[in-house]
Design a protein that fits this description.
Strand order of the largest sheet: 4-3-2-5-1-6-9-10
Shape: globular
Strand content: 15-25%
Oligomer: single chain
Order of helices and strands: HEHEEEHEHEHEEHEHEH
Largest sheet: 8 strands, mixed
Distance between the termini: 35 Å
């Protein structure tokens, strides 16, 4: 793990709560809700002044009776997006733990989320600190980040806002099962009777989310070790090797998210962005 990802014993509350020079946005992706929620809770706990926006998917109330007739590629109109906002304190317009429904209309899931995220960030114009946006299961961060970057540059309220990094939450307990799962990713519910499914396989989604991330945040295995069938003869789990193999070479893989702070993610994202700019400048400079 990079030294710039400050471990909790070294990061005091005062340091994490220090005023920032801008509003940094961290996008969190994942393929299972439990891991995403655990990572988000851990990160938010390191920064008292952070804003949290979480998006989740559910079947709309009007579509419940018709679920059995739907195929895995369920029409967007049969889904609803829930937005949960957490604030560091009382704030006009955005209440702590305020939950609202964002209708899908005729828009896809990614577009619904990125448009709503822009609207919520506009309400935070003029503030400083960090915003952690947890995207719905399976939604990739890159198109959301690109859209928000464009919105920031085209609108005065976006001055000082930036996408700091895309982080991916990975739970090691069932990583192998998800990585090799060729069944459609379940976005909501627990079965075919009450579920909402992505057209892509679970394994494909897991791989794509890891590949695009600037920071891969692993939740350590609960208990003595991984499931017996994916531990080798020496008792070692190869899941971390798989993750590092498919992650971007420039990404930071954090083997224990509980040792990472939200401010550390932002700082590492800034470092990676600067390194990328320097590489691009060197590649176009005359010999």
């Amino acid at each position: 793990m990079s030294d710039s990802l400050i471990s909790r014993p070294e990061a005091s509350r005062n340091r994490n709560a220090a005023p920032a020079t801008s509003l940094d946005v961290v996008l969190l992706t994942g393929a299972d809700r439990l891991s995403m929620d655990s990572v988000a809770f851990s990160l938010m706990d390191t920064c008292e002044a952070a804003y949290g926006i979480t998006y989740d998917v559910r079947v709309s109330a009007d579509a419940l009776d018709a679920l059995k007739s739907l195929d895995p590629e369920q029409p967007a109109a049969d889904m609803e997006v829930l937005r949960i906002v957490s604030m560091p304190g009382a704030d006009i317009g955005l209440l702590s733990s305020d939950t609202e429904v964002c209708p899908m209309s005729d828009c896809c899931l990614t577009c619904t989320v990125k448009h709503d995220a822009a609207k919520m960030l506009e309400r935070l114009s003029g503030r400083t600190g960090i915003v952690l946006i947890s995207l719905p299961l399976g939604v990739e961060g890159t198109p959301v980040a690109q859209y928000l970057d464009d919105v920031f540059s085209l609108n005065e309220w976006g001055a000082g806002m930036r996408i700091a990094t895309i982080a991916n939450a990975v739970g090691l307990d069932e990583f192998e099962e998800r990585f090799f799962d060729d069944e459609p990713l379940c976005l909501s519910g627990t079965s075919e009777e009450d579920g909402v499914f992505d057209a892509r396989s679970t394994g494909a989604v897991v791989s794509r989310l890891i590949c695009e991330a600037g920071q891969v945040l692993e939740l350590p295995v609960v208990g003595a070790g991984c499931l017996a069938r994916h531990v080798d003869a020496d008792g070692d789990c190869r899941c971390r090797d798989i993750i590092r193999a498919i992650a971007d070479p420039n990404a930071t893989v954090c083997e224990d998210v509980h040792e990472v702070t939200l401010r550390g993610l932002v700082e590492q994202g800034q470092k990676q962005e600067q390194e990328q700019k320097e590489k691009q400048e060197l590649s176009v400079s005359p010999q």
